[in-house]
């Protein structure tokens, strides 16, 4: 078994799930890091009618720096906006209707902390993928952990380092294939084949 340290993302990218669900990986989630802005911890990329669309969870700036204490802001109705964007983007995909009820549950959650919200989302996604992967939370921040460190591995701003086979996406005829979007993109387009697809992603670590 390999011990890996993973950040906890909102609707994580496909590459994150390939690491998380790898049978050889024993997964520890990071909760004590200082909250880094403009990362997948509070944002996700979907494939909309106009190309890549980033959905962002607004954060309450309470002065707390640790990720586990980062609070979600509900001053605006971002949950309705995100759900509407997802429905618009994926209602024409092969499997959206099949998973719609479970996906909608994500936007009925009202967690105070971003960490707890993201963990609940990952739980819902695992139920859709029909998989159960054990994981634990770390107990302190370690700058140079003994685990394989993925805290900075997934960038929301640059191209993915992971090798993955192209698959048909709803708007790929118009914009070409967009690589390594949220796991939702894979689920809505590949359905029950998603788990097999994740197992075939090439990783270098």
Summarize the structure.
With 205 residues, the protein is an alpha/beta fold.
Low-confidence segments, ≥5 residues, pLDDT <50? Answer: none
> Shape from CA axes?
globular
- Strand line-up across the major sheet: 7-2-1-8
Portion in strands: 15-25%
Proportion of residues in helical segments:
25-40%
Structural class: alpha/beta
Largest sheet: 4 strands, parallel
Query: What distance separates the N and C termini?
Result: 13 Å
DSSP, total strands: 8
Number of H- or I-type helical stretches = 7
Tell me about this structure:
This protein is α/β, with parallel strands linked by helices. It is built from seven helices and eight strands, in the order βαβββββαααββααα. The longest helix is centred in the middle third of the chain and has 16 residues, at 114-129. The protein is globular and about 45 Å long.
Helix and strand arrangement:
Blueprint: E1 2-6, H1 14-20, E2 25-29, E3 43-48, E4 51-56, E5 59-60, E6 71-72, H2 78-90, H3 96-106, H4 114-129, E7 135-137, E8 148-149, H5 172-175, H6 183-190, H7 194-199
Parallel strand pairs: 1-2, 1-8, 2-7
Antiparallel strand pairs: 3-4, 5-6
Descriptive terms for the model:
globular, 7 helices, four-stranded parallel β-sheet, two-stranded antiparallel ribbon
């Amino acid at each position: 078994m390999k011990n890996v340290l993973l950040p906890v993302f909102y609707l994580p990218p496909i590459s994150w799930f390939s690491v998380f669900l790898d049978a050889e990986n024993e997964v520890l989630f990071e909760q004590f890091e200082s909250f880094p802005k403009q990362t997948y911890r509070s944002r996700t990329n979907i494939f909309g009618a106009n190309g890549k669309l980033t959905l962002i969870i607004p954060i309450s700036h309470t002065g707390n720096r640790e990720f586990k204490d980062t609070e979600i802001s509900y001053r605006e109705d971002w949950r309705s906006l995100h759900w509407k964007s997802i429905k618009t983007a994926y209602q024409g995909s092969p499997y959206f209707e099949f998973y719609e009820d479970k996906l909608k549950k994500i936007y009925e959650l009202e967690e105070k902390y971003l960490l707890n919200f993201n963990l609940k989302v990952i739980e819902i996604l695992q139920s859709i993928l029909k998989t159960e992967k054990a994981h634990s939370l770390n107990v302190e921040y370690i700058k140079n952990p003994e685990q394989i460190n993925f805290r900075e591995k997934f960038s929301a701003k640059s191209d993915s380092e992971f090798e993955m086979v192209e698959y048909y996406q709803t708007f790929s005829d118009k914009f070409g294939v967009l690589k390594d979007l949220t796991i939702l993109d894979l689920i809505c387009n590949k359905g029950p084949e998603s788990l097999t697809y994740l197992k075939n992603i090439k990783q270098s670590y």
